[in-house]
Design goal:
The structure holds 2 protein chains of 2 kinds. Chain A is mostly helical. Chain A has 10 helices and 1 strand. Among the domains of chain B are: 97-181, no CATH class; 211-254. Chain B starts with 10 loop residues before the first helix and ends with a strand. The chains are: A mainly alpha, B mainly alpha.
Chain lengths: 211, 267
């Protein structure tokens, strides 16, 4: 029963997402009707999530900022082509992911990483850090910094497609079906990539794993 | 590093740390100002010309069946129109080519007849067929005599058609009963009225007596009568015949190239 619920959760978009999609569609219709200012609401609503995806794919704050802005501008310019067959959120994610993939393929050899600050207000994050270190103050910050770098290194060792799947599933919490829609591949491919990526990450982050 | 045995840390837990990575608040102020300026420039600036191409390519990619059907219809329409134009042009050309021939026939007759009997008709070919006067002067045939006068203005009709018509009229003049006789105007067009007489087939060896000839050839040197003129003549004839046949054979062998020999048989 629990397993089936998990599968359903990973395959089917939640009802909240559907309500969200309907609200987005209403805003999109306003923009298509000529209300340009309505697009700002969509920017404010999705900018953090889009930035988070792109940042976790590029591991660079400046690139993530530029690519996020470009994704919103592309969506704004192409808003008249949005038919509402998929949700705006999926459509925007697809634009952002495709732009990021193109950017990463163009700049395959260039890698300048920059780290964001981990907000320890998140209880899960704090719990994980507490489990990994008993240091406080500067020592704790140094440990968190080191852990972030290791995580970034491990993510960058993945291929672009594997990194994207891990980012969308583990970090942004999208379902397999939503990832398949965004990446325009099958659900099986998403699962396969996710499984392979986790195996690689497990091997890379072995010193930080507690069993 | 602290190792808390009560808490299991998995890859998913480590990845949740990345979820907690957030930019500072001032970042969003900069972000907002930048995106607003980009949005305004996107509204004001016109899209580049290649953006239209990308839209067309995208439309083809998204809707291949309707676009393909429209392209097939357009091609079919263009093909029909093109072939129709060609057919019309050909028909017009045929009509224009056929008209002068139809007109030229009496005119050419008028050209040829005065030439053959100028005193009987009493009018010149130029008067009868002024449109043909520049091609052929009033002569017996355009084949036997070259054209005399060539006008500066080219004729719209084919000179070959004119030539055929004139030749035809010449033939009619020279042999008026020919059409009734064999080819023209016959009820049985494809069956000749009279079959040409052929010589009956004859066997070239029928007149020869090989046994007698052989006997004479073999006995001629042995017999005392060889000295006689008859036997010597028989043997000499045979030798000549054989020599001539050999010559014919060697003549018919044509050395075409250095490495192969062509053999032609004459019957």
């Amino acid at each position: 029963m629990n397993a089936s619920k998990t599968i359903e959760k990973t395959l089917v978009a939640s009802p909240e997402r559907k309500l969200e999609a309907d609200a987005d569609l209403a805003i999109v219709r306003q923009v298509q009707a000529g209300d340009v200012a309505a697009f700002d609401r969509l920017i404010v609503k999705y900018r953090e999530r889009v930035l988070g995806i792109i940042y976790n794919m590029t591991s660079n704050r400046e690139d993530a900022s530029d690519l996020t802005q470009d994704a919103f501008i592309k969506a704004f310019q192409s808003i008249h082509r949005f038919q509402g067959q998929a949700s705006f959120f999926t459509w925007l994610y697809r634009i952002a992911v495709n732009s990021t993939l193109s950017h990463l393929r163009r700049n395959r050899l260039r890698s300048f990483f920059s780290l964001e600050t981990i907000r320890e207000e998140d209880p899960v994050s704090r719990e994980v850090i507490d489990a990994l270190t008993d240091k406080t103050g500067a020592g704790r910050d140094a440990f968190v910094r080191e852990l972030q770098e290791k995580l970034n290194d491990a993510m960058q060792k993945l291929s672009i497609n594997h990194r994207t799947v891990v980012t969308l599933f583990e970090i942004d919490g999208l379902s397999h079906q939503e990832i398949a829609d965004i990446m325009e591949c099958s659900v099986g491919t998403v699962r396969s990539r996710l499984h392979y990526a986790k195996q690689l990450l497990q091997a890379e982050l072995q010193p930080y794993l507690l069993k | 590093m602290k190792r808390d045995t009560d808490r299991k840390i998995s890859v998913e837990d480590l990845l949740r740390l990345k979820r907690a990575e957030r930019p500072p608040a001032e970042f969003w102020a900069t972000f907002e100002s930048e995106i607003r300026s980009k949005q305004l420039s996107a509204i004001v600036n016109r899209r580049p010309w290649w953006d239209g191409i990308s839209r067309v390519v995208w439309a083809i990619y998204r809707h291949p069946v309707p676009v393909g059907a429209a392209a097939a219809l357009a091609l079919a329409y263009m093909g029909v129109r093109y072939s129709g134009g060609t057919t019309g042009a050909v028909a017009a050309a045929r009509a224009s080519a056929a008209k002068p021939v139809a007109v030229a026939a009496p005119a050419a007759r008028a050209v040829a007849r005065p030439a053959a009997h100028p005193e009987a008709t009493g009018f010149s070919a130029r008067e009868a067929a002024p449109e043909h006067a520049h091609v052929v002067a009033a002569t017996e045939s355009h084949i036997t005599r070259a054209p005399v006068a060539v006008a500066a203005e080219p004729s719209p009709r084919s000179p070959f058609a004119d030539g055929i018509v004139i030749t035809f009229s010449d033939v009619r003049e020279l042999a008026p009963d020919y059409p009734q006789r064999a080819v023209f105007g016959s009820d049985r067009e494809f069956e000749p009225a009279s079959t040409p007489a052929r010589a009956p087939k004859s066997d070239p060896l029928a007149g020869l007596d090989p046994a007698a000839e052989r006997r004479a050839r073999l006995l001629a040197p042995a017999l005392p009568a060889y000295a006689s003129g008859t036997a010597r003549a028989v043997a000499g004839d045979w030798m000549k015949t054989r020599a001539s046949s050999n010559e014919r054979m060697y003549e018919s062998m044509d050395q075409g190239s250095s490495d192969r020999m062509l053999v032609g048989f004459r019957f």
